[in-house]
Amino acid sequence: MKFGKSANRYAKSLLDLSVEMGNLEEVYKDMVDVAKTVAGSQDLQTMLKSPVIKPDTKTKVLNQVFNGNVGELTSRFITLITNKGREALLGAIAHAFLFQYKAFKSISQAEVISSAPLDAETKAKVEEVLQKLAPGLSDLKETVDPDLIGGYVLKVGDQMVDASVSTQLRELRREFTENLYVPGF
User: Fold this and answer.
1) Residue 185 pLDDT grade (very low, low, confident, very high; cuts 50, 70, 90)
2) Which of 32, 58, 96, 175 is the least buried, fewest Cβ under 10 Å from its Cβ?
């Protein structure tokens, strides 16, 4: 994922500091909240990017938005990046932190796309295939795409397992167009 060099550096610094201080999980939860809050508010994004609003005003607003919702380390980090004039990167830093956290914890990103929501039995089978592709912890994202007709597509990193009906139909169509039946033989 691309977040920009500055966002990655700040996120790496926060990750290292939170590991050193022993509160990585708390900071992770804080960064999930920060990422959702910044992504969910166009007004907040505009305020963070505005060169007209003074840094101390931005700090006050961010303290009001996140006050009591984030830990001390996260609060101090937000104040630091605001004082450094990097507050516009707050959302990108939060996303970069989440990405680096998953890499640090060896959590693989996986996505399963199905034609309908997965039932418990199918989900168990998908997770079994996922463990074969990427042993260890995985973060499974479920997506519904009715165009698949049936089956599922599992993506883990650069690997993909396509067990969808639409792909099987496409393969049959391709075979029939390549192998034309010639009567009389």
Assistant:
1) low
2) 175
Nearest-angstrom CA–CA distance, 53 and 185: 82
Q: Are residues 34 and 69 in the same domain?
A: yes
* pLDDT at residue 141 in the model: 86
User: Coil, strand, or helix at residue 118?
Assistant: coil
Are 49 and 88 in contact, with CB atoms under 8 Å apart?
A: yes
Where residue 7 falls among pLDDT bands split at 50, 70, 90? very high
Are 144 and 122 in a shared domain?
yes
Question: What does pTM read for this prediction?
Answer: 0.71
**Element spanning 78, H or E:** helix 72-83
- Gap between the Cα atoms of 24 and 27, Å rounded: 5
Residue 86 located in a structural domain: yes
- Rounded Cα–Cα distance for residues 69 and 75 (Å): 9
Q: Which of 100, 58, 101 is nearest to 82 (CA)?
A: 58
pLDDT at 42: 94
Token pair 């990193």: residue: 157
Residue with tokens 């680096």: 100
Task: List, in sequence order, every residue forming a beta bridge with 171; answer none if it has no partner.
Answer: none
Query: Which among 62, 87, 104 is the end of a domain?
Result: 104
